[in-house]
Amino acid sequence: MTTPAGTAGYGEAAEQLAVQYESVSFAEVHRELYDRYPAPPASVLDIGAGTGRDAAALAALGHRVVAAEPTPELRAVGQRLHAGSGVRWVTDALPDLPSLVADGERYDLVLLTAVWMHLAPDEHPSAMAALTRLLAPAGRLALTIRHGPVPAGRRMFDLPAEPTIALAADHGLRLLHRATRADLHGRDEVHWTALLFEREALSGAPAVRSRSEAADIGPSSR
User: Fold this and answer.
1) Which domains does the chain have, with CATH numbers?
2) Given CA atoms 75, 79, 81, 82 in this order, what sign does their dihedral have?
């Protein structure tokens, strides 16, 4: 696989980044969207999984999780830190995700955490098309966008959320939720937008129940 331009600077800093990534929890990172994620057991794909913090947390909750990470050094750290988690690691990268698309599996939840900003705007259409192909009917796409100055040696683009929302709509993905939050690592100049989309369900097919919806159904009503 050709090394994606967006991974520049990550391989050589993998060990230091692991400390940073693992210093915050899955619950903290996903708090704005988590209640709208599918209830377990669901099929989950974490793209740009880094050190596997989120993938391992979701697997521990009972989901079937695939972690896609194109940087070998980060992938190796993740496999070491979260050995025995049940996460299946693969090598693939946006914008086209050729291996995952060719595999044909579809997912109830696709995570794109701190990844979208590494793609140039002209890569977004093909990336969104690939993401849509990987979503099951009524599947959900959780995407975060970083805003702020670009660190030295990294390839990032500080873009507003609106073009991404419009592009997702063009691919049949409905915006379910939008939120903003401060940076969890205390960088005052950095903030984040969190977006959750849903793919249209097939006619007559059962919808994917979210955590909050599942919690509303008590044992006596199931």
Assistant:
1) 20-202 (3.40.50.150)
2) positive
Look up residue 66 and give its DSSP letter. E
CA gap 137, 65 in Å, rounded: 18
Burial of 81 (0-12, 13-18, 19+ CB in 10 A): middle
What φ, ψ does residue 139 adopt, rounded to 5°? -70, 160
* Rounded-to-integer distance, Cα 122 and Cα 66, Å: 27
Q: To the nearest whole percent, how much of the chain has pLDDT over 70?
A: 86
Tens digit of each residue's pLDDT (9 = 90 or more) over 26-58: 999 999 999 999 999 999 999 999 999 999 999
What's the whole-model pTM score?
A: 0.88
Q: Tokens 């159904």 appear where? A: 217
User: What backbone phi and psi angles, to 5 degrees, belong to 87?
Assistant: -75, 135
